[in-house]
Amino acid sequence: MKLQxxxxxxxxxxxxxxxxxxxxxxxxCKKLKNPQKNIKSISVVGTNxxxxxxxxxxxxxxxxxxxxxxxxxxxxxxxNERFIYNxxxxxxEELYKxxxxxxxxxxxEKITYFEILTAAFFLGAKKFKDNxxxxxxxxxxxxDATNIIDANLASIITPIGIDHTDWLPKNEKTIDxxxxxxxxxxxxxxxxxxxxxxxxxxxxxxKSLKSNSSKKIFFNDLYSFSLKENNFFxxxxxxxxxxxxxxxxxxxxxxxNVATAIATLRNIDELKISENQIKEGxxxxxxxxxxxxxxxxxxxxxVKNNKLFVDGSHNPLGAKVLTDYxxxxxxxxxxxxxxxxxxxxxxxxxxxxxKINSITTVDIPNHxxxxxxxxxxxxxxxxxRVKYKSSIQEALKSLKLDEGDIILITGSLYLAGEVLNLx
Length: 423
Fold this sequence. Notes:
Layout: H1 2-11, H2 23-31, E1 40-45, H3 50-63, E2 68-71, E3 83-85, E4 88-89, H4 92-106, H5 113-125, E5 132-136, E6 154-157, H6 175-183, E7 190-193, H7 199-208, E8 215-218, E9 223-228, E10 232-237, E11 240-245, H8 254-266, H9 275-282, E12 292-294, H10 298-303, E13 307-310, H11 316-326, E14 333-337, H12 345-350, E15 358-362, H13 373-379, E16 387-389, H14 392-398, E17 406-410, H15 413-422
Parallel strand pairs: 1-5, 1-6, 2-5, 6-7, 7-8, 13-17, 14-15, 14-17, 15-16
Antiparallel strand pairs: 2-3, 3-4, 9-10, 10-11, 12-13
């Protein structure tokens, strides 16, 4: 209860949820004696695949006996998920202590919720100065609160696509502007660039990084992978090739994120990650709400023997990845979707055209910035009959399922969190 009370107070320190600037976070961290300085960090920017890449890195580091911290956003079920110290999610009492110290030093100054949480993460990380810190950039990167470290071990650029354009100037809602915001201020270290979804995006990233003197490790230039039969894939970089088991993540698209994580760790010389540690790590990845199958629980009991998946994808690039996976499944597919108000609703849904057998829109409970399910239903064109149900449970109960049919609940990480909490 006291943790929730302090979180409620912190949310009221700024009238806007997002206000892109580095001044407030820098001033607060200065009062905190700059805990972000002199930490070992790996920065992760991009549109999609950040969480899977981070969780793969974490799993490999754990297999190698290397302790790490991680700062992740947003959380799915509880705020503690954002704060990983010494390989573990922070306990309520410890998080309360950290936030209380930051709140006291901030002394009521105007600061956004994400900014003060970021300062709190750095303060907590200071206690584990020898750990590797994996830091996920939030909205973009250039003016993101995480972009106040002076040096890092590596920067990762995951696949970049159109998202969060509502925070861009009206005449700059383009992929070029998004690439600039995410990549133009990366530190000089090593930059690992994941496989992009088209060559044009990769060319634009290369152009944006041209003045950065870091060693740049682009997919297909200095590392690559190929899928093989008998449940393994082959990874190759300038240090040699590895025959690796498939990771415990659903969907071949996840190999892109796993390969990027491997390339990153193999390019940080001081870590000395072995082949066996990589094999152990990628078969023990913990990732929630990223094409996660729900195998038991209250919601699963509604659909009985039919497979139920939840995925937090919420932008067109995420929809493309999901539908590529759906193409590999030769059963009827039923989509339950809820989205936030500021997303590209029609563009997201269009990727599922001719790939699903039914679509049901739902409200996202407890999130006032989501689009009402009825309004989302009215916006969807070209799908024939679209149903609306007010709750996830009612949506599941309304489905007419045959043996082998699968159900996918998607459209928002916030919806995914509600699904997992309900289940």
